[in-house]
Amino acid sequence: MSIRKVEAIPVRIKRDQAYLGSLPEAVDPQAYFTRPPYRALYSAYFETAFVKITTADGAIGWGEALAPVAPEVVSTIVEQLLAPVLIGADPLDGNVLWNIMYDLMRERGYYGGFMLDAISACDTALWDLRGKILHQPVYQLLGGAYRDRVPCYVSGLPRPTAEGRVDLALDFRTQGFDAFKLAAGHGLRQDIASVTALRKSLGEDTTLLLDAHWVYALDEAAQLGHALTELDVGFFEAPINPEDVEGHAQLAAAVAVPIAHGETERTRYQFRPWLMQKAADILQPDVGRAGVSEVVKIASMAEAFNVKMAPHLSVGLGICIAATIHAAAAIPNLYLLEYQPPVFEIANLLLKSPLTCNAGHYEMPGGAGLGIEMDEDRLRKLQA
Fold it and tell me: Which residues contact 195 (CB under 8 A, 6 or more apart)?
């Protein structure tokens, strides 16, 4: 059993609504834009990069990198740097292959960013492939499932007013969801007012979370953190610049609301100082950036520090979602998993059998590997 072929497939999907809000007038797929107060680049399209690994016997495994911009970069790394070392290898050698891929550019300083995104896509594809070869679901290969359904929160509430966000949350409440994350960072008063409106309308039994997208200084984050404590918020995500581990440690010591961090990190090495310095109470690695292997290893490391996991899951499509569900089921210290309804709908368009999320829980995909089957014909039509 050996790997015969490794393909990368960058994809762009036209959409009517941008992540976190309305689209700009520009529709050029290369016309990336910022959305103040957030500093990151966004695209008018859903962009992602899939990886297909095929063995000499014809078995196929699928992976996906979280690639919201420039998916061609991830694809180039996969095909030019990673494919040559994977072809001819035994797909059952999971840890060995991860370390081989990681070491290729380690001494040159590429132990994050696009390089790790590409490794993560290959790693997930290898897990899917091993599951199919061994006729087992990925969660079983990871040691078994602690839960047969994975609890989740509705993420974003992309409405421009507090009233609109309340209405959207109330609509999800009628569908059985009872946990919601607000995309904030619009100033202390506005963020506090938004959370207050949700708390008053949804009641004390609803879990509320807040994502500040790194826009605040430490003193501002501390002020907001105290207010969020009074509002019984479940976690305060991305409060200050992600490079500032010490600042997060000071913040975590100063406020009672749990501090959440992790979508910017890729490996256990990057998460280690956060645990050592008590800079985060909840870790949020993304399978599309860390891969199944590292997410599980990060969870194991976090468990030793009594830190919970809330895996990040934003604009990754079907493979990312399915892989994250498997990983979340297989870790003991899960808090909640993220659920993006508009992304979930688009993800299912590329699957022959849809994933299911009902009443605040993801259902486990059935079958070997990741338990899903890509609609490859449709996928190829969307190839960038």
Answer: 182, 184, 208, 210, 227, 228, 231, 233
Q: From the centroid of its chain, how far is CA 370?
A: 16
Task: Copy the structure tokens of residue 254.
Answer: 């100063």
Pairing of strands 361-363, 149-156: antiparallel
- The β-bridge relationship of strands 41-42 and 45-55 is unpaired
CATH of 141-370, one of 3.20.20.120, 3.40.50.2300, 2.60.40.2950, 3.20.20.10: 3.20.20.120
Is the entire prediction scored with pTM above 0.90?
A: yes
pLDDT in tens, 17-61: 655 566 666 556 567 888 888 888 888 888 999 999 999 999 999
Q: How far apart, in whole angstroms, are the C-alpha atoms of residue 378 and residue 344? A: 17
Neighbours of 171 (CB within 10 A): 11
- Residue with tokens 């498997």, as numbered in its chain: 326
Distances (CA, A) of 289 to 81, 106, 295, 366: 17, 16, 9, 24
3-state helix, strand and coil shares in percent for the chain, rounded to the nearest 5? 40, 20, 40
One-character DSSP codes across 261-307 = E-TT--SHHHHHHHHHTT--SEE--BHHHHHHHHHHHHHHHHHTTT-
Q: What pLDDT digit, counting tens, does each position of 169-219 carry?
A: 999 999 999 999 999 988 999 999 999 999 999 999 999 999 999 999 999
User: In CATH terms, are 3-139 and 141-370 the same topology?
Assistant: no
Catalytically active residues, by annotation: 213, 312
- Domain 3-139 in CATH 3.40.50.720: no
The domain locations on the chain are 3-139, 141-370
